Each structure stands twice: as structure tokens, then as C-alpha cells.
Amino acid sequence: MTRTRPxxxxxxxxVLAVAVVASGTSCAxxxxxxxxxxxxxxxxxxxxxxxxxxxxxxxxxxxxxxRSPLLFTFVFGDVDAxxxxxxxxxxxxxxxxxxxxxxxxxxxxxxxxxxxxQLDADDDxxxxxxxGTGPFSFVSWTPxxxxxxxxxxxxxxxxxxxxxxxxxxxxxxxxxxxSDARVAALQEGELNxxxxxxxxxxxxxxxxxxxxxxxxxLVSSDHTETAYLxxxxxxxxxxxRQTRLAVAHAIDREKLNQVVNKGFPTLANGPFAxxxxxxxxxxxxxxxxxxxxxxxxxxLKAKGADTKMRLLTSSGPAAIRQAQLEKAMLEAAxxxxxxxxxxxxxxxxRVIGGDYDLAGFRNQPGEDPDMNRVWWYDGSTNPxxxxxxxxxxxxxxxxxxxxxxxxxxxxxxxx
Length: 415
What we know:
Helix 12 (about 315-330) links the parallel strand 11 and strand 12. The protein is of the alpha+beta class. The protein folds into three domains: about 1-130, Dipeptide-binding Protein, domain 1 (Alpha-Beta Complex); about 180-220, no CATH class; about 225-395, Dipeptide-binding Protein, domain 3 (Roll). The chain contains 15 helices and 13 strands. Helix 9 (about 240-250) runs antiparallel to helix 11.
């Protein structure tokens, strides 16, 4: 529905004009129009209303009648009502002042408006036959094999050279879970392009191909997420703060980054990347101290506390290499660690269900920090607070009525 500008976290509109009134409790969405094509459609204000309702707003009993949302029920839980004012305007009323509502409409690129026909389709058609307002039209999708799309000749947005987007006539997206296999397919000419967030690829295989003149490579850290070991504080072992500190002291992040990633990524010291509102130069996060970790684990064992844990990681080769080193570091401190590997989809399902102790994870995309509130508040009842922590200070640190000129660090809480 919206997209980020090249700099900063302010949003500009892709499909809708967004105006937030001074009170911060109401937002007007104005249709910019657009032409329909096979697999694409003008946004349409009825579809905008239905789409927001379908994301879990209280309208029509909490959701659009034909859809059963999961994640976005929590993202848009503070929307009180959605009303079509006229043929060009939808009025969104929120339960609390919400200055960052345009950021929620962006949702790290995850939010879009579906056509009314898709919203009203049966479950299978809604999930497998998308109709949107984007630069490409849907052609076909074979799960785990390929998604095929073709150019939408009526797409509304112009490129910087004045010509209409998109430049390409068609794209075939191929999901390849194994990062090594992706690089091999690129090298062999099976792929024209790949996207990877695996730092080891960027510093090793892909860098070598670039230096040999075989490929072009673009590396960006703009609006990046942070990667970390996530502790499930609903598990008995991690209810003890001394255990959590011992884990933090046991991990040599500098060594981990050098061995696994050749030092390429910037080490994070908090939930926000540099350049994102909320980033702090110093957070007083506990650092590597193997002596302190050993002492803490010994003390835990002496009082009969549990020091056995499961370490969950995804099945990618780079993720496994990193988790194996993390396991060795934890065991060096005296913990007993069981290694568990899952395909990424299964890992996410287990994290949502709370079936893990310690997991390699990545989240907190770098736009407006208000977008991360959904992952952190009310760990006792919020199922997408994956760490299950319940901290009133963190809850108070992220109110939605902060003015636009929020000071950096304001939303960092005490993670």
C-alpha cells in the first residue's frame, strides 16, 4: 500500500495517498486509480476497506467475512473502524493515536491490497491466484517449483527515465532453500539473478564470481533486519536471568562473525540497525566473557538448575555451520546442548508454537520502530511475541502516539 523513500523511514505512497490528521486517531486513504489487467486491478476503495477488514480490523466482527487472517490481526489490532467516505476516500479510525500508521501500511513490503474478487474467492483460489495492483500480472504458480508473472502494460508508476515500469516482460521466481544450490545454479546459468541474505555467500562464492567478471553484485544494508539467538523465556531454563546472561557471555560474536561470515556483517548490539530510529551506539548489552559464563553455569548446576537446552536452526548450510559453532561455545561454558535442524517453514512454525528453547532467528526490519511493537508486547498473551517475554517497561517504551520527531533510542526498551 505504501513504500519507503530512498532515505530515512518516512513513507511515500505507491497506491494510496495517505493523510494522518493532527489528532493521530484518523487517517484518510485516497485512491490514486489504476487500470485493470489480467491478474492486476485498480485498488478500488471498496477493496481497500475490505482488505483492511480482512487484515483483522474490528469491522464486521473483527475480520472480513471471507478471510481468516493470522499475523495482521495483531498488526492492525488498533484499527477501530474502516469506512468508505466517497468514491475516492476511505476513513480509518484507530483506537489510540497512531502517528506511524503509514509505516504499518508498508509493513516492510508485506502489505498490499487484493482485489475484491480475490478477497471473496474460496480459500484455495485466494491463496493461489493473486490479483493486485503491481507491475506484474499473475500467470501460474507451482508451489516449491516456480511462480510465473508477466508484465502489466497498464502499471501506473513511471521509472526515473520517464518510461513506465516494469522494464522486464516476465519473471519466473524459483524457490531454492539451499544457499549453496542457489549459487551453483547462478554459476551454471540456470538463474539470471538471485537474492541472498547469507553473508557467507556475499563474502566467498559470490565475491569470487564477481571478481572473475562472471556476475554483477549489489550489496545493501539499507533497512536491514538483525539476526540473533532468540531465547524462549516461557521455558523453565530461561526464566532465570542468570542463565540468559550466561548464554550471552558464552557467545564470542567477533569470532563467530569472522569464522562464519569472514567479518562481513556489522555486529548488532541491539534490536535496531544503524540508521534506524531507535538505534543506540551503546546499549550495555552483555558481551563475551567465557570466565563469567563458566562461573554462572557452575553456580546454576550447584543450585540444581537446569542447564540443558535445545538449539534450533534452519537447514541451510551456512545456518548449520553457524549453529554448530554456537553449540561448541555454549558447551565450552558448561551447558549441555542438543542440536535440532528444521526446514525454514517448519522452524517458523515451531517458533510460533513455542516449541524451542534457543533458536537462530532474524527479524526487526529497519523502517519505523513502531512496526516492531507487534513482536514484543505482552508476551503472556501475544503469540507473535516469539520470545514470550513479558516486560511492562518494554510495553511502556513503545506507545503509538509518539510524535514524528521521536528521539533515537526511545523505542529500544531494555531488550
